UniProtKB/TrEMBL annotation:
PANTHER family: 3-PHENYLPROPIONATE_CINNAMIC ACID DIOXYGENASE FERREDOXIN SUBUNIT (PTHR21496:SF23), FERREDOXIN-RELATED (PTHR21496). Its EC number is 2.5.1.3. It is an enzyme of class 2 (transferase). The gene is thiE2. It comes from Candidatus Micropelagius thuwalensis. Residues 6-101 form the Rieske domain. InterPro entries: Rieske_2Fe-2S, Rieske_2Fe-2S_sf. This is Putative thiamine-phosphate synthase 2 TP synthase 2 TPS 2 protein.
Length: 105
């Protein structure tokens, strides 16, 4: 495994459609477990720089808990009128039921 991958948490620590933020190398990274897979994004809405942790997950989208701005977890693109700036996404690897995040992305 590349040195750029950092252990975030175990796969079983999150339920489907749940998210939780972890401090990885000084960056707040939101791990999202969805029906479509596990994704990692920076835990910061680009609308008003508020944490995304606790926002609803629907399919492969996370909604900001403050104003409902929606972001695609696959590529970080925003859907809606509040911001046009995408969120940062990180590659994820699952190994031995642990979630690793590539912090070089």
């Amino acid at each position: 495994m590349s040195d750029n991958f950092v252990l975030a948490t175990g796969v079983d620590t999150l339920e489907e459609n749940e998210n939780r933020a972890f401090d990885l190398n000084g960056v707040s990274v939101l791990i999202c477990k969805t029906v479509e897979g596990i994704y990692a994004v920076e835990n910061m809405c680009t609308h008003q720089l508020q944490p995304l942790e606790g926002g609803r997950i629907r399919g492969c989208f996370v909604f900001c808990p403050l104003h409902g701005q929606r972001f695609d977890l696959k590529d970080g693109s925003p859907i809606g009128a509040l911001t046009k700036k995408p969120i940062r996404v990180f590659p994820v690897k699952i190994e031995n039921d642990d979630i690793y995040v590539d912090m070089s992305a």
